[in-house]
Amino acid sequence: MKHLKTAVIGVGHLGRFHAQKYASLSDLQGIYDANPARAAEVAQELNCRVFASIPELLSSVEAISIATPTSTHHEVAESALRAGVHCLVEKPFTLNIQEADALIALAQEKQLVLGVGHIKRVHPAIRHLRQAGYGAPRYLEAERLAPFKPRSLDIDVIMDLMIHDLDLTLLLTGAEPVDVRAVGVAAVTDKADMANAWVTLNNGSVANLAASRVVREPARRLRIFWQDRYASVDFIQNTLHIYHRGEGAVPGIPGVRDEAIDLPKKDALAAEIEDFLTAVMQQSPVFCDGQAGRRVLAAALQVRSAVDEFLSRKQEK
């Protein structure tokens, strides 16, 4: 992968980390950011070039990450794909389904890799559960809570945080939402900063998802229930426990066996980018393609619509 010419467009908080990984995994040609001072700072750190414009950058590379504000994802990715450049677009994929569809069609036309940065897919716990062959879970519940940070404020907490667990819900169930109910509150910004969603899928699975970006103590937990066991994932502690149902008077209580899975400590962003670059080199499937990014975007938009309806009803009272 070292011979692949790469770059990063947008080197804010997350984009800087993308650039660091590309510098170690590929031939990083340089970066571009709308803020020249930020671009110069990151370029100095990585000893790479600052491109004067996006067209200049695109003429010099084969693959890029796009870590700009969501409102610009479509415009930047469209320019890249038209220039024949493979793209890894940070989540959320685009602002709306129309933009997502346009990028998917263009990538297919140009035969280019189009990945979407749903990084939790490469977490060792999720990979273990997908390989275990347990089938679709019956119920999932997630908490994704974070202290307030003055970034990603162009999107609400659904697109910022909850979208991770929506993606894992669709991935692990292999199903699509048929009913979405949600509530939310704008606490600090003018968008929903806290939300809770109840999602019923077309295979009968149900997910209860909570997200907040205004709490003191962060939490990133996912619990997944099957007929005869459940899994508990703590993304912060990097732990996975699988509880197998016992055989007693009360099913599932006496004799429950706790199986602690030894997870490797892995740099998730490096794994995500390595997967993307491998897909570019081998023309193989990427860990999360445009269609998958579109599906979770559609689910997130359904949650947002339900939150908007809830807030509208509150205002009417």
Automatic annotation (TrEMBL):
Matching Pfam families: GFO_IDH_MocA (PF01408), GFO_IDH_MocA_C3 (PF22725)
SUPFAM superfamilies assigned to the protein according to its UniProt record, in alphabetical order: Glyceraldehyde-3-phosphate dehydrogenase-like, C-terminal domain, NAD(P)-binding Rossmann-fold domains
Domain GFO/IDH/MocA-like oxidoreductase, first and last residues per copy: 154-225
Q: Name one GO molecular function term.
A: nucleotide binding
Q: What InterPro entries does the database record attribute to this sequence?
A: Gfo/Idh/MocA-like_OxRdtase_N (IPR000683), Gfo/Idh/MocA_Oxidoreductases (IPR051450), GFO_IDH_MocA-like_dom (IPR055170), NAD(P)-bd_dom_sf (IPR036291)
**Which chain positions lie within coiled-coil regions?**
none
Q: Which residues form the Gfo/Idh/MocA-like oxidoreductase N-terminal domain?
A: 5-118
Question: What's the protein called, per UniProt?
Answer: Oxidoreductase
Q: Which organism is it from?
A: Acidithiobacillus marinus
